[in-house]
Specification:
With 371 residues, this protein is an alpha/beta fold. The chain has a domain of 180 residues: P-loop containing nucleotide triphosphate hydrolases (Rossmann fold), CATH 3.40.50.300. Helix content is 35%, strand content 23%. The protein has a six-stranded antiparallel beta sheet with strand order 2-1-4-5-6-7, with helices on one face. A six-stranded mixed beta sheet has the order 8-11-12-3-13-14, sandwiched between helices. It has a two-stranded antiparallel sheet with strand order 9-10. The protein is globular, with a radius of gyration of 22 Å.
Length: 371
Amino acid sequence: MTLIRLSLTDFRNHAGADLAAGPGLVALHGDNGAGKTNILEAISLLAPGRGLRRAPLAEMVRDGASGGFAVFAEVLAGDDLPPVALGTGIEPAHPGRRLVRINGGAAAATALGDWLAVLWLTPAMDRLFVETAGNRRRFLDRLVLALDPRHAQHGNRYEAALRARGKLLADAASADPQWLASLEAQLAEHGAAIDAARQHTLAALSAELAQQPDAPFARPLLTLVDSEGEARAEPWTAEALRALFAGRRRIDAAAGRATAGPHRDDLSAVHAASGRAAARCSTGEQKAMLLSLILAHGDCVARARARGRRPVLLLDEVAAHLDPSRRAALYERLAGQGGQAWLTGTEAALFDAMPGPVTRFHIAGGRISAA
């Protein structure tokens, strides 16, 4: 998967920008605040989800603009296929409603996943292993989505049914048992699909990681655990989930939330070489495990029959936090495995060791120039 053209209109600090890139590595350098990460965020919006910052849409509009923004890209999704035109943005009249177009036609945001898979690693993710279970679930679901675009639809419908069930349980005395059972059947159907996709992704990712050396990037061992921190013994079935939700109505009504189910699971990681939990590892080890995980997942996507192409990788300020030998190893791996990776850094010298082909840009004050 290769973005051959990216255009931004009134997005963040970019009034208008047009970038042409080729396959391989894309290096963006410029001072802090120049707008490098904004370019990566724009690319991340061309896949299902809320983008790498998970920011409200209205916040993405350039200060002083009319109230809307647009992101457009031409994507090569196959050697023998014409470029696909992907676009997203908002209009001033509807600042909270995201618009999506594929080849000029209106589409749902989830449909973007049929054409483009995007993975990213940002400085904000460095503390993933010590933050909340919710952050790790979202991270895992992003990995799943790159392999199974339908995952977003199951997730949206599961969350909608979860909210509706919660409202009914808030007034348990007048709750319609048949309506509750119907909602729980929806939760069971979509929850089982969510869990199956997560389990499949973790199995594929674990197999890929098992083939990777422990150096130069630390290798994590991954497990899906329940809300009590215990490893999940077996996948959720629709029947088991339906019984779970039905049996916990009184508990969930008292708690004001659904206290068990796929939405409460967590991603556990252990440093393979030392056996330490990722949360107890050093910051450098945690970042190395994340990088190893992202690279291995790119291999998983490339192997998947439904895709057959590598995802676009967005690596924000990664090079600056690696020593020269690990930086060179990262560049060699990215170039050797194919696909397209966009990297940012404050200095052009960080990218001097990149093997070709490399597309280079300098970002300054919202202006983009070939470097």
